[in-house]
Design a protein that fits this description.
Shape: elongated
Oligomer: single chain
Length: 183
């Protein structure tokens, strides 16, 4: 990569000037400053890409997109929120929404049903993507037309998914745990 090389300003001078002691001393005194500037330039370029961003870059993106991070959020969660916001594109289509939900929750991490005659959008988030429910809700509020009702909840387990367990095994869990926990 271009920014991975060692910079020595003396190499940029014509050969006959490189022999003068004054130019060698001048280059020696300026090289640390130029190397520092070169490193900062590399950081600026990295901050342009969300996956490579540092804390400073993420703060800048959050300010631009008006995202308020929670104090307990890791850097990866904050990057995820930024990517979610950047992936939002209007106009709204059901196909585009499905793509965005797949990005957030994974391929089998959601279900989506549109009832046009009722102006109703039913979205269920799988238990494996339960931690993304709040982000899905925020995204739906931003991109779904306001004349549509959004029914959003978790995709709870059905009794048929528990058939392989015995009553003795299920007795260790509460009804709520059986319904909403990932085993």
């Amino acid at each position: 990569m271009l920014l991975d090389r060692e910079i020595d300003i003396l190499n940029y001078l014509p050969e006959f000037l490189q022999d003068f002691r004054e130019f060698r001393e001048l280059a020696a005194s300026e090289n640390p400053e130029i190397r520092s500037l070169w490193g900062r330039l590399g950081n600026v370029l990295k901050e342009q890409f969300i996956y490579d961003s540092t804390e400073n870059g993420v703060k800048r993106w959050e300010a631009i997109l008006k995202i308020n991070p929670k104090g307990s959020d890791s850097l990866e969660v904050r990057k995820f929120r930024i990517l979610t916001r950047l992936n939002e594109k209007l106009p709204y289509t059901c196909k585009k929404l499905a793509q965005q939900l797949e990005t957030l929750c994974g391929e089998s991490g959601y279900s989506l049903e549109l009832k046009n005659d009722e102006y109703k959008l039913i979205v269920r988030v799988a238990l494996t993507a339960k931690s993304m429910l709040a982000e899905v809700e925020k995204q739906l509020k931003r991109i779904v037309p306001v004349n549509m009702y959004v029914d959003l909840s978790l995709l709870y387990k059905q009794n048929s998914s528990l058939v392989s367990y015995t009553h003795a095994q299920m007795r260790e869990y509460t009804h709520e745990q059986l319904r909403s926990e990932v085993f």
